[in-house]
């Protein structure tokens, strides 16, 4: 499959999942949103992090789980541009979430595989293993989104 076809298919499926998702209203209790990000590709990562910030600003609790190539989003030594829609870098958005009291988990095994030292991550991120990740995924009222 050509890259553009794959991208269009992914975007179509994402749009359809939003159409069929239960509608939230102002009367709904806050949820816990888990954004699992496995890519450092700017379009997908920027979309995920922008949605995470909007959820947080709407009063919901947010956890961002970075694994596979997503770990590079929290790497302070990687080159990052701004997400074209907001102009904000992934590191900026992650730091904003952390400052606002939300959790950013980074897969420890992925750090080893990616050659990143924990001290080179955005301040406030938590290096995590399967137990902490599972706890975040299985909390009550969790809505999980994967990018």
Secondary structure elements and their pairing?
Blueprint: H1 3-20, E1 32-37, H2 42-57, E2 61-66, H3 90-99, E3 103-107, H4 108-114, E4 126-128, H5 130-137, E5 142-146
Parallel strand pairs: 1-2, 1-5, 2-3, 3-4
Helix pairs in contact: 2-3
Explain what the structure shows:
The chain is globular, with a radius of gyration of 15 Å. It has a five-stranded parallel beta sheet with strand order 4-3-2-1-5, with helices on both faces. 40% of the residues lie in helices and 17% in strands. Strand 3, helix 4 and strand 4 form a beta-alpha-beta unit. About 5% of the residues have low confidence. By secondary structure, the protein is α/β, with parallel strands linked by helices. It contains five helices and five strands. The protein has one domain: DsrEFH-like (Hypothetical Protein Ychn, Chain: A, 3-Layer(aba) Sandwich), CATH 3.40.1260.10.
């Amino acid at each position: 499959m050509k890259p553009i076809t794959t991208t269009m298919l992914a975007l179509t499926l994402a749009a359809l999942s939003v159409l069929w998702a239960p509608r939230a209203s102002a009367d709904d209790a806050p949820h816990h949103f888990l954004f699992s990000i496995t890519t450092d590709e700017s379009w997908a990562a920027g979309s995920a992090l922008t949605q995470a910030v909007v959820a947080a600003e709407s009063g919901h609790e947010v956890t961002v789980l970075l694994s596979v190539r997503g770990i590079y989003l929290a790497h302070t030594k990687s080159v990052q541009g701004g997400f074209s829609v907001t102009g904000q870098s992934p590191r900026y958005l992650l730091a904003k979430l952390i400052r606002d009291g939300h959790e950013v988990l980074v897969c420890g095994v992925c750090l080893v595989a990616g050659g990143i030292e924990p001290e080179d991550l955005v301040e406030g991120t938590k290096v995590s293993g399967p137990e902490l990740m599972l706890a975040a995924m299985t909390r009550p009222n969790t809505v999980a989104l994967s990018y």
